[in-house]
Amino acid sequence: MRETIEQQLFSVDEIAQRVQELGQQLSLDYAQLDPLVVVVLKGSAVFASDLIRHMPISLQVDYIGTSSYGDDTQSSGQVRIVKDIEVNLLGRHVLIVEDIVDTGLTLQYLLATLGLREPASLKICALLDKPSRRRAEVPVDYVGFSIDDHFVIGYGLDYASRYRQLPFIGVLKLEEE
Ligand code: IMP
Fold first, then answer.
1. pLDDT in tens, 13-29
2. What is the rounded distance in angstroms from the CA atom of residue 101 to the CA atom of residue 22?
3. What Å distances lie between residue 105 and 8, 32, 49, 64, CA to CA?
4. Which residue out of 29, 72, 84, 102 is catalytically annotated?
5. How far, in Å, is the centroid of ligand 1 from the Cα of 68?
6. Catalytic site residue 149?
7. Per residue in 92-127, pLDDT tens?
8. Measured in angstroms, how far is the CA atom of residue 13 from the centroid of ligand 1?
9. CATH tag, 13-68+76-147
10. What is the strand order of the sheet 169-175 is part of?
11. Contacts of residue 163, Cβ cutoff 8 Å, sequence gap at least 6
12. For residue range 137-173, what is the model confidence (pLDDT) as tens digits?
């Protein structure tokens, strides 16, 4: 397969502006709640790192790893935790930070699993949302950008573990060679 970056969907400046807005909104909403920000590895690491730096409030950060797509662009539908968080969720206001909501299966699983640990609240902040691909209805409380059905890379998002370091978000095109 030949991989090309077909178009730039969001520029460095557009991303920075939107992430700042999200951080400001979250800072207002969570100002008194000492939230636990749960970053879903690996794709959300870049977004979350920028986001929390726009949140000058009391908070904690932890990381959770879920099984991923492998080298494919399609979800297997199978989700499992490969790295768990270390903080006790009981009575905490938990904000899950996700790079992109596609089928919704990952977040459906995380909401169910983390919900069993009795947090005071459990909400989702996703940089990108692909609503047309949804297979599980999940409430996404904070969304950076809604996008059409494209496979996107950059700003933490990968294809076959590559392109995460791109500072912009682009659409990846795969063609037979
Ligand atoms: P879902 O379970 O189908 O909602 O997918 C969640 C995960 O799939 C995301 O956290 C991403 O890691 C990955 N994913 C979904 N769509 C894309 C994409 O367009 N580019 C890169 N990764 C994606």
1. 999 999 999 999 999 99
2. 16
3. 27, 31, 24, 15
4. 102
5. 8
6. no
7. 999 999 999 999 999 999 999 999 999 999 999 999
8. 23
9. 3.40.50.2020
10. 2-10, 169-175, 152-153
11. 5, 153, 154, 157, 170, 172
12. 999 999 999 999 999 999 999 999 999 999 999 999 9
